Protein 1
Amino acid sequence: MIHLILAGQSLTRDDELTLFINDALRFVSAFIIPISQQAPHVYISALPFAPEQSHVARKFCPRVPSTLPITQGKPSQWPMVVFTAEHHNTIVRYVVFSLDESTFASITSQTMYVCDSETGHRISGPFELFNHGEVYGACFSPDGKRILLVFGSYAVVWDIEMGEERFRIEGYQFAFIHHNGRIVSACGVDGNWDGSQDESGFRILVQLWDGGHGTLISNRLLEVNDVAGTRFSPDRHFLAVERRSEDVIELWNLEDGKDP
């Protein structure tokens, strides 16, 4: 059991402490800009506008009675919208989260920003994407330090910390394998990848790449015929393949490429 003394008041239950911490995080996220300018803004600008029923306001406002009184328009609870991020001036095509959900990337056809998921504030970027064209997909590396962007017939891996393109890989479908940080790519060998293949389906080739340097590890991790469609599993351990003539779905192991 956790027993915490906060501003002279006791919080004795675990769930009560959790609620207060979550409310305090909302308080900091909502007023991070004035608070980061000067500490007195905690009392001048933040507490007076905190929702009346918030845990922070109920515990601290009575202890600071000389703060600015708000007579109208003060909300009773925190809004459902945690923050509004307005970094782009064009349509956002993709929003993708890191595996631990601490950061997210917002992507247009021109730029990409990486932001904090708690506040929406920019962590890095903008990264210019003018030379690549339309973005068709994106995903974070397992360590959250790189982002894979899919552009038509190739993908680009961006280093978020360095703010630069690391390498590019040819193919049509891509994903980071979460357990080891490698990259798997799939492309059609015969026929078109866009689904305009004939009734016999098409043949796909899956390759494995080093996620840090982009070097090819396996030129032919697996090859499947008679394919009507594919999908990576959420954990990226498997590739689901729809076989056209047999009306079945197979799961291929992306760790070793052995038979399904």
Protein 2
Amino acid sequence: MRILSLLIFITGLFFSNQKTDSPHGPDFKISCKTCHSPKGWQLDKETYSFNHNTTKLPLTGQHKEVSCRQCHPTLIFTGAKPNCIDCHTDIHQATLGLDCSRCHTPATWLVTNVIELHQTSRFPLIGAHRTADCIQCHKSENFTRLDVTGVNCIDCHRANYLATTNPNHPQSGISEDCLLCHAITSFQWTGAGFNHATFPLVQGHAAVKCSDCHAQGTFTTASTVCYTCHQQDYIAAKNPVHTPAVYSNNCQDCHTLSPGWKPAAINHTAFPLTLGHSLPACTDCHKDGNYAATPTVCYSCHQTNYTATTNPNHIISGFPNTCATCHTTTPGWKPAVFNHTNFPLTLGHATPVCADCHIGGNYTSTSTVCYSCHATDYNNTTNPKHSTLAFSTTCTTCHTTVPGWKPATYTQHDAQFFPIYSGRHKGQWTNCKECHPNTANYLLYECKICHSSVHRSNNYTNAQCYNCHPRGTGG
């Protein structure tokens, strides 16, 4: 009976203090049978069913093999921390940060992809850096500390920078940014190629030595002006002599880098060398080496041509000496074309010889009146005879230059003699002889040639016909 009472007491004590006596703390909510069995309080792996993947630290790799107490020494599971550094001592002593998972995995502490890991860092391993020992850059007090001196080239290569003599980097003021000249992909630290951004090394400058331009190791103040280096070339030039001619010392005005100083081509901005002027020798125009004050007026070089010209004689004719008025450089002085502004040479006048109109070489006072050249044509015309009929000497009254003097159109019948362009007469005749049978006198005309049946009983004269029918109507 006493034994039974003792068991009841112990059982009641157990159940009454279950929460306060749990080694996992008062807030632990998981059922005991998840991990324990009636065999005892030790973890029963046969009944263990807790899913650790539902926590902040899923058990993978070597974490599957460790005992719970290695991570949970107090058995208060809610106090466990998921970060590697919470359980593992940082042998790198914070030189690589506190995120162990950047390099390590739960499978093993060994790191086999150092190069790949470096590619995602501030300093990817390229060129010679791929084969360098870690300690060459990570100079620390032990092999586990990986202190970083810096990520700039000069941080590791300052000794190389200071020791370089060709050229002397500190003395020349060369930048400490090594990448400006050296390639990080190279497996050697030599063979630098400086990027001459302000003075590209091309063509004639492509293969020169640094010392050719950078005398006495001066790299920061070297001039980019051609004349600075080529003053002696300028002074020594003979064809043409640059100095007496006062040639510009802006060498690039005439010279290029390809393939060198020769051939030179000056840009004749003020006097383009085109067509007939495209292939002369410089001395043809620049006499006695005069390149600074050579005039651009045609007459200054071609006065002899002007004076010697006889067809037409320019001097006698009073031609202007502004040669470009008549001549072009295409293909040369001939053919010349004078712009007849006051008397356009069109149609019938389009292809005459100058002397046909400019008699005796008269080019300054030649009349523009048709009759002055065509008086003979006027007097010799018999159909109708202009002189007898007292036709106007203003030839353009009847004639045009299309295509020549013929056909002519007389337009004064409305105002003179007979209105053949009105009434029933309009558009009826194409030949003067139909009304003027006497071609020797066009003042005479015959109405009865067409109107003989009108007024038969009367013998009317032509003048009488006109008096009654002044507009050519039948009224």
